[in-house]
Write a structure and sequence with these properties.
Layout lengths: L1 E3 L2 E3 L21 H6 L6 H9 L4 H30 L6 H22 L7 H11 L2 H21 L8 H74 L4 H28 L4 H14 L3 E3 L9 H22 L3 E6 L3 E6 L11 H12 L2 E7 L5 E7 L1
Parallel strand pairs: 3-4
Antiparallel strand pairs: 1-2, 4-5, 5-7, 6-7
Helix pairs in contact: 2-3, 2-4, 3-4, 4-5, 5-6, 5-7, 6-7, 7-8, 9-10, 10-11
């Protein structure tokens, strides 16, 4: 925990050397229990398969398919919960694959379970609305409802079970509501972490300025005065060799202490990617340049955020000072940061101390720097993870 004037910063809000995908043990390891509670909907299809007049092999296959369906739902729910705790996106392809596998297992169980297996569509509908965009989720729910209404009327021996339609719709509404609450809580947690990170960064900057302004100034004065005293003593011919040696030692110690203070202050000036985004917006607005900036930095691993912050500062500084642009675009992903504008573009060889320093930092951090002409016709700066 890190104490700040605003309160106590949660672990993970300040870079701590942990990988971005680190998740402490806790709620995530027991997430499967919350999914298992809802498996009571499968009681009816399991019972129907057990009592089915179908041949024994079909009954065994049906029960096995339903048990696999239950295990798959628990496993998928645990995976989904873990990704949510890690604040990572859920690949849509995997969600659709899970839905397809679930539907296939219900199809295998249908010959023995009959229309009772349609109860399993509740899980498919809820999984869809909680993990897919709204339109895709609604499409899956409509497909489940259509299956419940149509299949009993076209499959010989099945009886209509329109009551399951209400269960699917109500469960889908509940699942969507829960997903929205969780999403809002995640967004609030992100905002709070960014605010705490900005507060810590500002406090570091304040302490660095105070140390430099107070102690650095005093050490500079001491250094100058001891140097002057030594010169006066040497010019007047007064004093002995011991006095000159002591003054020389005092001057040396003062210079070393001043160098240590400057090194310490330089180390305390930690760049925050979220802070640099806010500073970039202010700088571009002040220069009359339209800014198209990302709203969050959550996708960037913690170990690359400072490098990307330096790249953002260098890119925006070049846009403001040299580009003559009317628009600046910043694109930020987990893999790279890109700063481009619609100004004059690169003129001959691209060089400068800022870019040279950025290239050195990128090389030390296992990344590469690319420059060139942007699609808008201006200058392009891109830093990509190796």
């Amino acid at each position: 925990m890190t104490d700040t004037p605003e309160g106590t910063a949660p672990r993970g809000s300040v870079p701590s050397g942990l990988p971005a995908d680190h998740v402490p043990g806790g709620p995530g390891r027991f997430g499967w229990i919350f999914a298992a509670v809802w498996l009571f909907f499968l009681y009816e299809p399991l019972g129907a398969s057990w009592r089915s007049p179908a041949a024994l092999p079909w009954r065994v296959v049906g029960i096995a398919a339903l048990l696999l369906f239950a295990l798959g739902f628990i496993g998928f729910s645990a995976w989904w919960r873990r990704l949510r705790l890690m604040d990572q996106p859920r690949p849509r392809s995997r969600v659709w694959l899970a839905l397809a596998v679930g539907a296939a297992l219900l199809t295998v169980a249908a010959p023995s379970g009959g229309e009772a297996t349609l109860a399993g569509l509740v899980y498919i509908a809820v999984t869809a609305v909680m993990n897919l965009p709204l339109r895709q989720g609604l499409t899956a729910v409509v497909g489940c409802v259509a299956a419940i209404v149509v299949l009993p009327r076209v499959v010989p021996g099945w009886n209509p079970s329109d009551g399951a339609v209400g269960s699917v719709i109500l469960a889908s509404f509940a699942g969507y509501g829960v997903s929205q609450v969780l999403e809002r809580n995640t967004q609030l947690a992100r905002a709070r972490e960014q605010l705490v990170e900005l507060a810590v960064t500002q406090e570091r900057e304040r302490v660095a300025r105070d140390v430099h302004d107070i102690l650095g100034h005093s050490l500079t004065v001491i250094t100058v005065k001891t140097e002057l005293a030594g010169r006066l003593l040497e010019a007047s011919g007064a004093g002995d060799t011991r006095a000159r040696a002591e003054l020389a030692d005092a001057e040396r110690l003062a210079r070393e202490a001043l160098a240590d203070v400057r090194a310490t202050v330089s180390g305390m000036r930690h760049l925050s990617l979220a802070g640099e985004l806010a500073a970039a917006r202010q700088a571009l607005d002040a220069a009359g340049i339209a800014a198209d900036l990302p709203s969050a930095v959550d996708d960037v691993p913690a170990r690359y955020r400072e490098l990307f912050a330096f790249a953002l500062r260098e890119g925006v500084t070049n846009v403001v000072r040299h580009s003559g642009a009317s628009r600046c675009v910043v694109r930020l992903t987990a893999e790279c940061i890109e700063v481009r504008d619609d100004g004059r573009g690169p003129d001959g060889a691209v060089s400068g101390s800022g870019l040279a320093g950025l290239r050195a930092r990128a090389q030390a951090g296992g990344a590469r720097v690319e420059t060139g002409t942007a699609a808008e016709g201006g200058f392009l700066l891109r830093v990509t993870r190796a």
